[in-house]
Amino acid sequence: xxxxxxxxxxxxxxxxxxxxxxxxxxxxxxxxxxxxxxxxxxxxxxxxxxxxxxxxxxxxxxxxxxxxxxxxxxxxxxxxxxxxxxxxxxxxxxxxxxxxxxxxxxxxxxxxxxxxxxxxxxxxxxxxxxxxxxxxxxxxxxxxxxxxxxxxxxxxxxxxxxxxxxxxxxxxxxxxxxxxxxxxxxxxxxxxxxxxxxxxxxxxxxxxxxxxxxxxxxxxxxxxxxxxxxxxxxxxxxxxxxxxxxxxxxxxxxxxxxxxxxxxxxxxxxxxxxxxxxxxxxxxxxxxxxxxxxxxxxxxxxxxxxxxxxxxxxxxxxxxxxxxxxxxxxxxxxxxxxxxxxxxxxxxxxxxxxxxxxxxxxxxxxxxxxxxxxxxxxxxxxxxxxxxxxxxxxxxxxxxxxxxxxxxxxxxxxxxxxxxxxxxxxxxxxxxxxxxxxxxxxxxxxxxxxxxxxxxxxxxxxxxxxxxxxxxxxxxxxxxxxxxxxxxxxxxxxxxxxxxxxxxxxxxxxxxxxxxxxxxxxxxxxxxxxxxxxxxxxxxxxxxxxxxxxxxxxxxxxxxxxxxx
Length: 565
What we know:
Radius of gyration: 25 Å
Distance between the termini: 17 Å
Number of helices: 6
Number of strands: 34
Structural class: mainly beta
Strand order of the largest sheet: 18-17-16-21-24-25-28-29-32-33-34
Largest sheet: 11 strands, antiparallel
């Protein structure tokens, strides 16, 4: 049972949504790349010949043209990349408000931000992903401390290597910069290019100008990593090295090799510092190197899950981009999304396909995960979709959550005990605020809703949890926001059972919680929960109405008191 007040959601969900070696999102690295900038010119200010090969110099010569003297022993962190192996604090409502502005808050009491329900759900999903590693946050923050954009003294030291990972303030700062990669404009400013093009840009880095983190990826898309480039060196015979601080190897200067003769790259890395290293490689065709400019991170990020679906900057609404829904899977299975036209996005025969117009997928880079978790899938918000949750390749049971987050709402089904070979289906109708979950197994999942109502007096978060689905069947739940009802349809369940209900109601004045347990869930019934009538003026309980035979008439009605009091 999860009762989650919205004021703070700090939980780190277990299994992550996707892989890579640490925590950055590589926007559509192996999906739709329209959201990233691709290098189109190989001009190199004298470092490349007209044939596209890098010019030679004395072996060992540092050929970077900018002033950049980052020393990993001093300017890198003294501790290695970490995931859920230490009890770290990640994003809190304070970081959410800092990243997205006041629009992420349902209410602000002094310095305390009470998150909107969709913002709280997004924070929970992103914090869960950080269980796999924080390398993106470490790569970014060490760089910003070196360039004096963030002061190490705010965290108790004069340089990054002085700092203690057990400092909660530092943990939250690392989480903040990790999370920027999940939203625009950071993830739409990623620069893709050939190895020589990436090296050319790194050569131009200057302490007073633009700086970058590098994303490196395995060619099959199963893993990735983020490192901090600090210079370029000529190794002789057409071979160059991008010098880097790799937070998996504290205090070391690492080398990412660029071979100008065939425009290829290679790098010896590991999933984490305790795992045997592996050599990753790519070339001009694989596009498995990219750069994320620091300047894209330091501005307010766009809040796609806020009710308007776009950011507020300086008191004015920014240009509205196409509204999108993101689908997160937390668990070890795979998903396949299908739209009403039969177009598909997700895993088919062990590979990711993307046939849905306007859709894309993104990779969170992890740090300690050995299996490839699911990407985050982004789709136009107007689409109704069917999602197959596939446990065919599982070797053991996994706890699985499936959540859709869009502008002003979140809908999901959580705590599915997916067993090897089990295949379930979820149907999402975002415009109708509806979800249906179908299984052949005995399940008792949580169906969750979050709704932001900018024009109404309250925002709401709901959980229908512990709902018995004995012998399989379909349970459907939807919000009727205008009537103030939450409805549960058990017409296609195969047996009777019970469910529990939890609600959080947030207004500008207060945050209230309501809970009720062991409510009858009769086969074939339609249950109305009139949540809008429960407020300060009517605190006795919530009205439940039950249509037992589906004829549109209420056959049973009762008031349920708050069991949490």
